[in-house]
Write a sequence for this structure.
């Protein structure tokens, strides 16, 4: 039978969450005969448990070199895909049973909608950080948006190839770049009619801090070659401004200028307070004020450090060309 939907899942590392992702696909309220799953693995081999899933799903495992980016794996999987529609998933999401049916319905009913994603929901016993991430992810629901995260994306294969696939030169922020390119062809839609649990969501603040440093490395590089909407600029400017103010406050204290130190500290803390207030409203009582403040006290410096690290790497790379 001709495949209608091709799931493309890049994977590297442990398989536990990947298996949960695949089981959620197998549990779709959709004709499995019309679906195929392509796992692009950067491991050297697959487990017996993963291989056994080929009895439930039209599952293909493609191996990729471990030094390639996630975009390279996604594009490699897309080239293997036979389906009319492509569903890109991260290897750590569990889909609601109506995900495939809902995604197909949204894209099919409106010619102006070219890319759709389902909303995030909390897993069982979700800690405060996961609830924060979910609240931020669902800031806009059942509406057209300017960006969609790469964890679950659904689009027609023709749309994918019109924009040239995912940007393989980016280590992170590839979803910003890709969804912006797709947005030039039509609308992006974030729906509450289907959902997913991000199994690999951040659970603790200190590991999140380290991960955000890594995530920020491609911040500025992702700006090249695409238009930057005004609403996106704060995500680049505010972290740098906050960290700069706090560093200036420390310098002013060292040189015995307490007045300027106070002004610099206040300049750095005001965005934290403003963003924490917005997050408290988005969370609708699900997360307390202390957790919201803690999140941005770590998030902004980490993003700034990652951005600076990315600049240094880019300069180092260019200097050896």
């Amino acid at each position: 039978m001709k495949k209608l939907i091709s799931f493309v899942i890049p994977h590297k590392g442990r398989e536990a969450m990947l298996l949960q992702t695949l089981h959620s696909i197998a549990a779709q309220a959709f004709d499995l005969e019309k679906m195929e799953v392509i796992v692009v693995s950067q491991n050297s081999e697959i487990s017996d448990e993963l291989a056994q899933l080929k009895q439930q799903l039209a599952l293909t495992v493609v191996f990729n070199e471990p030094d390639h980016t996630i975009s390279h794996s996604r594009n490699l999987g897309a080239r293997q895909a036979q389906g009319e529609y492509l569903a890109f998933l991260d290897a750590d999401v569990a889909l609601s049973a109506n995900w495939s049916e809902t995604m197909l319905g949204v894209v099919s009913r409106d010619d102006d909608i070219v890319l759709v994603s389902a909303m995030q929901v909390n897993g069982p016993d979700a800690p405060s950080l996961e609830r924060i991430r979910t609240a931020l992810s669902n800031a806009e629901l059942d509406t057209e948006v300017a960006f969609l995260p790469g964890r679950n994306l659904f689009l027609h294969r023709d749309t994918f190839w019109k924009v040239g696939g995912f940007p393989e030169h980016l280590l992170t922020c590839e979803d910003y770049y890709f969804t912006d390119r797709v947005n030039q062809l039509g609308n992006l839609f974030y729906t509450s009619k289907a959902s997913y649990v991000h199994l690999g969501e951040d659970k603790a603040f200190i590991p999140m801090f380290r991960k955000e440093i890594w995530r920020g490395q491609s911040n500025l590089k992702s700006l090249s070659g695409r238009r930057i909407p005004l609403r996106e600029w704060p995500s680049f400017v505010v972290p740098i401004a906050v960290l700069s103010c706090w560093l200036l406050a420390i310098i002013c204290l060292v040189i015995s200028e307490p007045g300027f130190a106070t002004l610099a500290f206040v300049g750095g803390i005001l965005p934290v307070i403003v963003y924490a207030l917005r997050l408290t409203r988005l969370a609708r009582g699900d997360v307390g004020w202390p957790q919201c403040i803690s999140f941005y006290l770590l998030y902004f410096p980490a993003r700034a450090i990652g951005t600076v690290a990315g600049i240094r790497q880019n300069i180092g790379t260019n200097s050896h060309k």
Observations:
- Strands lie at 5-11, 35-41, 59-63, 85-89, 93-95, 113-121, 143-145, 152-156, 187-198.
- The first strand starts at residue 5 and ends at 11.
- The chain is about 50% helix and 15% strand.
- The radius of gyration is 21 Å.
